[in-house]
Amino acid sequence: MEEKEISQAVIGRLPRYFRYLSELKYAGIERVSSQELSDIMKVTASQIRQDFNNFGGFGQQGYGYNVEFLHNEIGKILGLDRTHHLIIIGAGNLGQALANYVNFERRGFLFRGLFDNNSELHGKKIWGIEVQPMENMEVFVKENNIDIAVLTIPKTEAVTVAEQLVEYGIKGIWNFAHVDLNVPENIQVENVHLSDSLMKLSYNISRFESDNTK
Amino acid sequence: MEEKEISQAVIGRLPRYFRYLSELKYAGIERVSSQELSDIMKVTASQIRQDFNNFGGFGQQGYGYNVEFLHNEIGKILGLDRTHHLIIIGAGNLGQALANYVNFERRGFLFRGLFDNNSELHGKKIWGIEVQPMENMEVFVKENNIDIAVLTIPKTEAVTVAEQLVEYGIKGIWNFAHVDLNVPENIQVENVHLSDSLMKLSYNISRFESDNTK
DNA sequence: TAGATTGTTAATCGATTAACAATC
DNA sequence: TAGATTGTTAATCGATTAACAATC
Fold this sequence. Notes:
2 copies of one chain form a homodimer.
Chain A: H1 8-26, E1 31-32, H2 34-41, H3 45-53, E2 59-60, E3 64-66, H4 67-77, E4 84-89, H5 93-105, E5 109-115, E6 125-126, E7 129-132, H6 137-143, E8 148-151, H7 155-168, E9 172-175, E10 188-191, H8 194-213
Parallel strand pairs in A: 4-5, 4-8, 5-7, 8-9, 9-10
Antiparallel strand pairs in A: 1-3, 2-3, 6-7
The structure holds a DNA duplex (24 and 24 nucleotides).
Organism (chains A, B): Kineothrix alysoides
Keywords (chains A, B): Cytoplasm, DNA-binding, NAD, Repressor, Transcription, Transcription regulation
GO biological process, one term (chains A, B): response to redox state
């Protein structure tokens, strides 16, 4: 079976398709054409068809796409039909917020453990899960089949901790630390650099203001 | 003065340059060439020079770039030389975490107010700032010169609240709700869709595993 | 001056859009 | 069957990379 590499540009759009299809499905709508999707999502119908066709034909000429089927297929592509077991490293505000968030918001991502260096937090329960010292990580990851680690620790620690986690057998890292991690190619990293995001917003605000001044 | 539109691809890379230049500056390094930056940042030297040249020449032939000067210039481009006043709408876990984050992590972004519909939270202090009812938003935004609103409320409310904020005179929205906002072109929106990000990670993990199975 | 490295033009690559034949 | 709409090829557009002349 030949592997055609799908570009990250396409992957990046899948969750948004998934979200809109959820809504259509929830609204009881059965079928949708690329043109209709185009209208509500503000992207070209051509792009929609190209994107879907990266994964084989989900539609039918003259009919369009079956909403429920398409929704389900995109879910499978995104790996949402499997269960992910994740731990959070760093029990600060952001770590605690994500613990709650991940647990409730999305099925399939199971919050299993929370680790922190701060001994004052050890034993404290966050959403029913005890904060553990980081020395416990290795055993915990291996015994509980953890595949995703969420990094909400300062950047000074993040690089080292990431390397440890890779050793312990983690498959992916959701990285909230403001630093680029250094991990092997087979380990997936998804960065959420909040300050970068805020800076982009700042740029765009400034740009618009000076556009007006011209 | 002619306005050449800078692509969002370039803007998206500026915060990362800014971060690396911070580190070089902090390490006491005075000059850097595009080739040296290329080596540590893992992007092409050509792209670095192209990116910087969108904003005019920051370097000098035969020398390279002065780290401190370049760092400073990129900061200015990103609007980090100004002060932004921001409020957070939604005092849940994420809102509270961001309140702390924004306040401490980045200069120039001043956390000024926190709003929530839940009356049980009203009057409670988060990082020294009282949670207010959302009815106070209009007056507060206008009187305190607020330019950025951070949305950490459920998607059901987000669209309406965003429209209100625009009316009150906000310039930019940092949107953490899982919904596309509907605001005029002159209002800047920066989305942080955490669940989208987690889905991308999920996809890449699945993809790698099946790559191996082939 | 010679060497180094930018600024910038030209070439390449990839992603988006347009068009239309295939087909339900 | 006729109409609609996909799947897919071709055209366009934009972003990245390569190359090199300008110049410090």
